[in-house]
Amino acid sequence: MLEDNKQELYEKYMKEINDRIKSNQEAQDKMILAVSVAFLGLMPFLLDKLPITCGTKILIILVLICNALSLITTLLSFYICSKGNKADIQYATEYYLNNKQDSLNKQSRWTKIGIYLNSCSLILFALFLILFVIILINYFINKG
Q1: Is 99 left (phi over 0), alpha (psi -120 to 50) or beta?
Q2: Tell me, what DSSP letter sits at residue 101?
Q3: Which of 115, 120, 116, 94 is nearest to 106 (CA)?
Q4: What is the spatial distance between Cα 123 and Cα 106, in angstroms, rounded to a whole number?
Q5: What residues have CB less than 8 Å from 135, skipping those under 6 apart?
């Protein structure tokens, strides 16, 4: 009886954790997509106002690369995580219906790749923001 209650509490806890992870991931993806698209909308204005030097050109190229790679990895993660979720259903079936205890914490290769892509996307997005702030600082310094 106590063991059954403990198992139910554990499963409830794991569901809550997974829901939080999913919510955070969805918010991260929305943020990356929204800010990246907004940046692309600001880009013509910035290019018109920035003094074009060798350093500025390098920064702009790096910002565009980080932005593009961040968007690509985010979009790829949608596809890969979807495949991972479908594959992880098999582990859930093994655990819940076939009583295979070792299937409880298994993750598919697709899920692991999706987690990696999400991490890469976040790192690239952080680099993009840092470089973009440097460009804005350069703009305001040279504005006067």
Answers
A1: left
A2: G
A3: 94
A4: 26
A5: 46, 50, 56, 59, 60, 63
Residue closest to 38 by CA, chosen among 49, 30, 27: 30
Tell which phi-psi region holds residue 100, choosing left (phi > 0), alpha (psi between -120 and 50) or beta: beta
Q: Which residue has the tokens 């939080």?
A: 20
Nearest-angstrom CA–CA distance, 61 and 67: 10
**pLDDT at residue 114 in the model:** 87
Residues (pLDDT < 50) of the chain are none
Closest CA to 122 of 77, 64, 82: 77
For the chain, domain boundaries: 2-143
pLDDT in tens, 18-51: 777 777 777 877 888 888 888 888 888 877 878 8
- pLDDT given for residue 103 in this prediction: 66
> Which token pair is 34?
């929204």
| Claim: this prediction has a pTM higher than 0.70 | yes
The two structure tokens encoding residue 28: 């991260």
Element (H, E) at 51: none
CA 48, 50, 51, 55 torsion: positive or negative? negative
The amino acid at 53: T
